[in-house]
Specification:
With 261 residues, this protein is mainly beta. It is built from three helices and 15 strands. It comes from Luteolibacter flavescens.
Length: 261
């Protein structure tokens, strides 16, 4: 019986002992980014064009005068769009002082289905509503996820908080995040400084695990094997390139253009 109990214990998911590791949601000493927009080229193995993605940070929006607004939009192009159609549009409203998320909306159009995710942050709870619409029939299904924990970032607030920290060689950051309707734990490790694509950069490794919303157990995220990110080592600290080993191979996001807003 003791042996069976031990084997059962070892087979269970890693429980929520990760909570003590979480980096506080306090901005670091690096200056905030000025309002800017960035274009990225998506590719397989850095050779086959797969899509485009544009991020904007801090552009004034008259609809949300009390919020810091971040957006992203783009999708697959060329041959990739024929194999796997995907278009995405995201908007996030953050607290301008803390850059913590308040509300976000994401729309993913994958041809046969259109998925809209609305998430709101209130106190220690994140509530996410996911609506899946079948393009051909118009039929809709709705699913709700509630995750009680704090702090929890969205995609944009995670990016802004990471870049704000000192990022000394060897530093590690741990951030829970809700990119769409499911929570994840992101671990960031500063690997060092190096010249990359002709620029001074900070090299980071990024790892993701799923978080069970109820038990808060950590679970594997099998779609992403490993990710390396190069940030410009300057005042902007913007992503120069991201490389991920995922289930479809080597996917890269490479900076193509940037401009002030």
């Amino acid at each position: 019986m003791k042996v069976a109990a031990l084997l059962l214990t070892l087979s269970l998911p890693v429980m929520a002992d990760w909570k003590a590791e979480v980096t506080p949601a306090k901005l670091g000493p690096h200056p905030k980014i000025t309002p800017q927009e960035f274009d990225y080229r998506l590719s397989w193995n850095g050779m086959v064009d797969a899509g485009k993605l544009t991020f904007s940070f801090g552009k004034k929006d008259p609809k949300y005068p009390s919020d810091y607004v971040a957006r992203a939009h783009g999708g697959s192009t060329g041959v990739a769009s024929k194999l796997y159609k995907s278009n995405v549009a995201l908007i996030s409203r953050l607290d301008p002082a803390t850059l913590k998320p308040r509300f976000s909306v994401g729309v993913q159009d994958e041809g046969k289905e259109i998925v809209t995710t609305r998430s709101s942050w209130a106190g220690t709870q994140v509530t996410s509503e996911r609506i899946t619409k079948v393009a051909k029939t118009g039929a809709e299904t709705t699913a709700e996820t509630k995750f009680i924990f704090t702090p929890v970032h969205d995609i944009f607030s995670a990016m802004l908080h990471v870049r704000s920290h000192k990022l000394a060689n060897g530093d590690k950051l741990v951030l829970p995040l809700m990119p769409f309707n499911k929570p994840y734990l992101m671990r960031v490790h500063v690997l060092g400084r190096e010249k990359f694509a002709g620029r001074d950069t900070i090299k980071l490794s990024v790892a993701l695990q799923k978080i069970d919303p109820k038990s808060k157990a950590l679970l594997p995220y099998k779609k992403m094997k490993s990710t390396t990110l190069w940030l410009s080592d300057d005042a902007n600290r913007i992503p120069v390139e991201l490389r991920s080993e995922v289930f479809i191979g080597d996917v890269r996001m490479t900076l193509a253009a940037d401009r002030k807003l």
